[in-house]
Amino acid sequence: MFKRIMVPLDGSALAEAALPAAVMLAEQFNSELILFRVVTPQHFITHIDGSVYAELLVELRQQNSDAAYQYLMGVKETLADKDIAVRTVLLEDEQVAEAILENAAKMDVDTIVMSTHGRGGISRWVYGSVADKVLRQADMPVLLIRAAEEKEVEED
After folding, report:
1. Which domains occur in the chain, in start order?
2. Contact 53, 46 (CB under 8 A)
3. Could you give the CA distance from residue 144 to residue 125 in angstroms, rounded to a whole number?
4. Coil vs helix vs strand at 89
5. Mean pLDDT for each consecutive 10-residue tract of the chain (156 residues)?
6. Is the pTM of this model over 0.70?
7. Which is nearest to 78 in space by CA: 14, 25, 35?
8. Orientation of helix 130-137 relative to helix 96-106, angle to 10°
């Protein structure tokens, strides 16, 4: 039923909240799990005239990409004891939701499993929601996991 399951990750614990459900599905259906990460390019303006230090920009982009790759490898390593195939995909794009949808179609993904903040109303409008865009535009099933945000503990 589910041959390929995509799990979009952004490096946060919130995004990783989707992993247990994705792993459960992958184990149940003998699916390949695709850990998917989109790195958004960084833009820097260094002077009023808009000139950019190209060398610095290239270096920062490479560092960002390297960190994202290491992150994906670390997540893949935590799944090594599971009896499932895990693939990692890393790419750079400014439009995260569109990149998820486009690549899910290209990779013939059967379902997307991702977490959401569960924001609604004004908060969703102000911050936008990758999960909301993916849910509304996907041509395949999307399983959204509402992840609880960590709350600050007040000390007396």
Report:
1. 4-146 (3.40.50.620)
2. yes
3. 18
4. strand
5. 94 92 96 95 60 70 92 96 95 92 96 80 55 91 80 49
6. yes
7. 35
8. 40
